[in-house]
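Protein: Dimeric dUTPase (All-alpha-NTP-PPase superfamily)
Species: Alkaliphilus hydrothermalis
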Amino acid sequence: MNIQELFNIQKILDTKILQEHKLEGEDLVSRKIMALQVELGELANETRCFKYWSKKNPSGKQIILEEYVDCLHFVLSIGLEINFMEVSAEIKMEETTEVDQFLKVFANIADFQRDLSHEMYVTLWGNFILLGAIIGFSWEEINTAYLRKNEINHQRQVEGY
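Structure follows.
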């Protein structure tokens, strides 16, 4: 996966949204952070990893992957918003559970919101990418799903979503 290519693709969508909704020049960082938190919660809900009281299985892999790339759209968009696009595709595997990794990403989002530094963004990025690996996604699956969802997001803008 070429991360710079993903940032470039996201920038095209973000620009379209800004123009369509007349938001040029507005600071959207807080709204993007909140959107990421909401999407991350939706992702956790589909994995059901925290639902110790339930015997119901997680959603299918494609549904979970789509929720993951919804989050990825916002992680990329936040990076673009504050001009932090220098991140690594390397995954530093750790012994952890899905629940612990979700909690770590939620904490990273909160930390980043308080300190909009490049260091905090890189930490958020790395832990988010690790979450995808822990869930079981390959770079190829993420890239393909991101491109597919990006097309849908462009179409949604045309349709007035």
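Remarks: Helices lie at 3-20, 29-47, 61-81, 98-114, 118-135, 139-158.
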